Amino acid sequence: MTHAEHPVLATEGLTIRFGGHVAVNDVTCAFHRGTLTAIVGPNGAGKTTYFNLISGQLKATGGRVFVNGEDVTRFPAPRRTERGIGRAFQLTNLFPNLSVLENVRLAVQARSAHGFSLFSMASRHVELIEQAEHVLARVGLLDRAGAVAATLSHGNKRKLEVGMMLALERDILMFDEPTAGMSVDEAPVILDLIRQIKADTSKTILLVEHKMDVIRSLADRIIVLHNGYLVADGAPEEVMSSPIVQEAYLGTGVADHV
Ligand SMILES: Nc1ncnc2c1ncn2[C@@H]1O[C@H](COP(=O)(O)OP(=O)(O)OP(=O)(O)O)[C@@H](O)[C@H]1O
């Protein structure tokens, strides 16, 4: 197989056991450039755990993870980031005492660490700030650039997390319920941003999401996890009308919610 034929991201038989409980069970799935895949399933289905196994926050009990055909299963999270995996964490990755701008500048700097020398530091500093400001404009936080991160509203903290992920310029972008806890006027900023990122067809986007309207408007494909198993995979309308999904959701009374 040539390099070009590899999916950007793939999992093969990915499994994790917590004691007797198998949270992700033998999940084989491939993700391709220029696509947005929504990962849905009832509470406790294994969605976040699947993300943690892909990004390296959790170590698999079995199975493998590939990025551009390379087996990264044994790589720790930072090395997977180097290989192209970007993830917006839920409020765990911010520097609370630094300003919004400083948070993003650090992410920009982490990306462009190569070739950073004392000699060029002053001009690089201006460039890094400009890049950070550009990211803040994209996530709608430019007017809060000077604010201390800890003082932001919940919704703005979530925007900042997305900004930090964008600043790293990875090819694979993973969003875990990006608008959870956001107000009705905050959520559209993030959804429009995901739409814009998707329009840049070089990216591969994975989105864990419960809201059906968000899934309908963004996803090219839906995969469904249930009790750790991948139980459905396909085009949104096809998956939503499949008997297994109807049964899984109708049974739990969350058909319209997913
Ligand atoms: N570190 C852990 N130790 C033990 N059990 C865990 C751990 N992480 C997750 N689990 C269990 O694995 C299962 C899957 O959890 P996970 O958070 O991945 O589900 P989810 O589909 O993301 O749910 P939600 O929609 O509620 O976020 C749950 O039963 C959960 O209790």
TrEMBL record:
One of its GO terms (cellular component) is plasma membrane. Signal peptide: none annotated. The keyword Nucleotide-binding applies. Gene3D superfamilies: P-loop containing nucleotide triphosphate hydrolases. GO terms for molecular function: ATP binding; ATP hydrolysis activity. Pfam families: ABC_tran (PF00005), BCA_ABC_TP_C (PF12399). InterPro entries: AAA+_ATPase (IPR003593), ABC_AA/LPS_Transport (IPR051120), ABC_transporter-like_ATP-bd (IPR003439), ABC_transporter-like_CS (IPR017871), BCA_ABC_TP_C (IPR032823), P-loop_NTPase (IPR027417). The keyword ATP-binding applies. It comes from the Bacteria. Keywords: ATP-binding, Nucleotide-binding, Transport. SMART domains: AAA (SM00382). Residues 9-252 form the ABC transporter domain. PANTHER family: ABC TRANSPORTER ATP-BINDING PROTEIN (PTHR45772:SF3), CONSERVED COMPONENT OF ABC TRANSPORTER FOR NATURAL AMINO ACIDS-RELATED (PTHR45772). This is Branched-chain amino acid transport system ATP-binding protein. It comes from Novispirillum itersonii (Aquaspirillum itersonii).
